[in-house]
Structure formats: C-alpha cells, structure tokens
Write a structure and sequence with these properties.
Distance between the termini: 31 Å
CATH topology of the largest domain: FAD/NAD(P)-binding domain
Oligomer: single chain
CATH superfamily of the largest domain: FAD/NAD(P)-binding domain
C-alpha cells in the first residue's frame, strides 16, 4: 500500500514526472517519492508524425507505464483531483489524500476537443484527422485521399510541439507525391501566426521549404469552427489591428468571406492540432494564474520553476506557464533545475544556482530523410547545441538530422531520459 506522506509528490507520469523522479532518486535514494498518474500506457509522442507518414511503427512508441517507474518510487494509479497547498495536500478522484514536503506538478496538457465547435463531429468522419489524436488515422486518411484541397492548420492556443502541424504538411506533400496525387492537390498550411516559424534563421529555411513544395501558406488564419457536413473550416482573420481579410483566387481555393473577418474554406482533407489547455484540475485550481494571458496555466517563475506563491511547489512541462515551446527537449532542461532546487531546499531552505533559460527544440522534419533542428530559448533566441552546430548546419534540412530524429532520439528517450541519466 502506498504511503500517505512523501518527501516529494509528483503529479503526472509523463516525460517530466518520470525524469524528475529518476533524477531525484539517483541523487538521494533516501527520499520518499511518489508519482500520481492513472495511465497504463506511456507514449513517445514525438514519433507520431512519422507514424502518420508510414515511417515509424506505432507499437514502438508505447511502453507500459509501470515498467518506466524508477526503482524505489511509488506509482499511485489514481486521478489527481484537487490541491490544498496550505495543507500540503493533494486529493484524488478516488477519495484519497496525500501529503508532501515538496510537490512537483507536471500533468501534461489537455486536448480540448470541444473548444473548437464541430471538431469532435469532424474527427468522426473519414476526411478529418489529427496526429495529436490518432496518427494511424492520419495515415489512413492520406492513403484514401485522391486529390483536392488538403488543409493543415493549428489553433491560437499553446500546443505541445508547436512545429508538429507543419511537419505533418511537409510529409503529406511527399506522401502525396509518392501516391501520384500531388499534381491534383492544393496543399494549404493555415496558421494564426504571422510567419511560418518565429526563430531565425530557421524561419528562412522553412519559408524556402514552403516555396519549393508549393504549399499555400495562409497567415493570420485562426480556426474557429468546422462544418463536417459541408466540409468547410471557418477561420477568423487574426491580424492585429486589421479587421479586413483579403482572399485571393490565384490558387483556385474555394474560399469565401462571411460577416466581419470570417473566412470559410472548403476541404477534401483536413489535419489539425486541437485547441489545448492545462488539465482541468490544474486550470481550476489556486495554483494556476487566475487572470491575464496565462490564465489557467500553472503559475511558476520562468527561471527557477518554483511556484510564485507556494515555495515548496514546482512545475515543469506542458502545463506550466513558460514562454517557450512545449516539448520533451524543454523538459530535459527543466527537470535538472527542479531537482536541484528541491534538493537544496531540503538541505537548507534555499534555491540552487541552476536556472532554466527557456531552452526548447523542434526537430522539423521537412520530408522523408530530411530534417532541420530548431533550438532556441526565451525571446526566440537561437540556442543551438555547441557540439552539433560545429558538425552540422542544423538550420538546414539534413539527412543526418533525420537519422537523429528517427533512430537516436527515441533511443535516448527510453534509455537515458526515462532513467534520469540526461
């Protein structure tokens, strides 16, 4: 039976939770550590883009959750439901309470399907898919596609792996060429943002990819509704200070304007990232921001990852309000900071010297056998690995980076990150 009190209680058994637990136990085997997570499966989601493109096996992205829990760490297979930070207590849906010396909150992110009207119904059709939901369905939809308008898009909410929607479009381009239907396909990538990617020089390389692949790039297109019966997606024109949306017909797209600033586009295939949010038990808790642009996301200091109001609580991963991309690579840099701070606080009540500077990376697959590695930190400043950048120009699509993505990164994830050794 699990103990009811722990030195460190971790909410979430994903990348952040297991890495943090493993590193804590490696540094101090006397610590009583537990993870609360109801999941039976643990997925290596970065490979799902490749699964959809028939370049990776779905079964190889899964492990039993219990098999990954570090030795000496308790796994509590329950649903975290509420926080009582003043009493150092977490309550679960199963009616149990657990107390802690330190709490780490890293439950991941919620796919908020119902935040986009029509999406749930659209996903039930054979024309609409999402690598975030079911990459094997994406493969089936692309295989059945015989030409027409293929739309790839993403929401204005924060999402995990912000580059994933465009990676899906790049691989779809080559998938359709192999099938022989690309010449009768209008491939659209629509984004609420102003550019394809916010960090230079990766932006310029990706703009070149878009041009060469003849992808129709639509900026300031924020998806707001889907009509699965008519096979139409509605976008709100999102350019700041500009309510006048302009559509052109040079690409032969069936677009029309409705009302003020709403663009309606027909699709024969639609792939999108769903809107996303922090899990409800975080979003509705006293640990989340109550107002402002970060409303609903975990309130932590962006460098120390310590909660701003409850000093024995730390957060990392997708649920945290951090102004950087939500990726496993970011968690790899966040976990050591959380671990160092908790150990230092246990020792003398202070924080350690380690700081998280916003590092994240996005392995942007631009085709079969081609990838560029975008690494950056806060304020969209490039932050490339000093060793890799000496050997390769990671701002250009390279075969060597494809090898890194398909073979090396999965191995590193299962054998190093999950064991707390990197």
């Amino acid at each position: 039976m699990a103990q009811k009190h722990y030195d460190v209680l971790i909410i979430g058994g994903g990348t952040g939770g297991i890495m943090t637990a493993a590193q804590l136990r490696r540094k101090d085997k006397k610590l009583r550590v537990a993870i609360i997570d109801p999941a039976k499966d643990h997925w290596y989601q970065p490979a799902w883009t490749l699964v959809a493109a028939d370049a990776f096996n779905m079964k190889d992205t899964r492990r039993d959750e219990k098999s990954l829990i570090p030795t000496g760490v308790d796994l509590i297979v329950e649903h975290a439901a509420s926080f009582e930070p003043e009493q150092n207590t977490v309550r679960t849906s199963e009616g149990k309470a657990y107390t802690y010396g330190h709490l780490v909150v890293c439950p991941g992110i919620k796919l908020d399907i119902d935040a986009l009207p029509g999406l749930r119904e659209a996903l039930a059709t054979d024309k609409v898919c999402s690598n975030y939901v079911d990459p094997e369905k994406t493969k089936r939809v692309m295989t059945a596609f015989q030409g027409g308008t293929a739309v790839f898009t993403q929401p204005s909410t924060p999402i995990k792996c912000g580059g994933a929607p465009q990676k899906a479009a790049y691989l779809a381009d080559e998938f359709f060429r192999r099938k022989g239907v690309r010449d009768r396909t209008k491939l659209v990538f629509a984004t609420p943002g102003s550019v394809i990617f916010g960090v230079e020089p990766f932006r310029f390389a990706l703009e070149d990819v878009v041009r060469k692949k003849e992808i129709i790039l639509k900026t300031f297109y924020n998806p707001v509704r889907i009509d699965p019966v008519k096979q139409e997606i509605h976008f709100k024109w999102s350019k700041p200070g500009d309510n006048l949306c302009v559509i052109t017909e040079e690409h032969g797209l069936k677009e029309k304007v409705e009302g003020e600033g709403t663009i309606v586009m027909h699709y024969d295939m639609l792939h999108l990232a769903p809107p996303q949010s922090a899990p409800d038990f975080v979003k509705n808790s006293s640990l989340a921001y109550a107002e402002g642009p970060n409303k609903g996301w975990l309130e932590v200091d962006i460098n120390t990852l310590q909660h701003k109001r409850f000093p024995n609580i730390f957060g990392l991963g997708d649920a945290a309000a951090l102004p950087t991309a939500k990726t496993g690579a970011a968690i790899r840099k966040q976990a050591p900071v959380v671990v160092a701070n908790i150990l230092q606080r246990i020792k003398d009540g202070a924080l350690a010297n380690e700081r998280y500077e916003g590092y994240s990376s996005c392995p942007l697959v631009t085709g079969y056998g081609k990838m560029l590695l975008a690494e950056f930190k806060y304020d969209n400043v490039r932050d490339s690995d000093p060793v890799l950048s000496k050997l390769f120009d990671t701002s250009k699509p390279l075969w060597s980076m494809w090898v890194l993505k398909k073979y090396m990164l999965p191995w590193m994830y299962w054998n190093r990150m999950m064991k707390g050794t990197m």
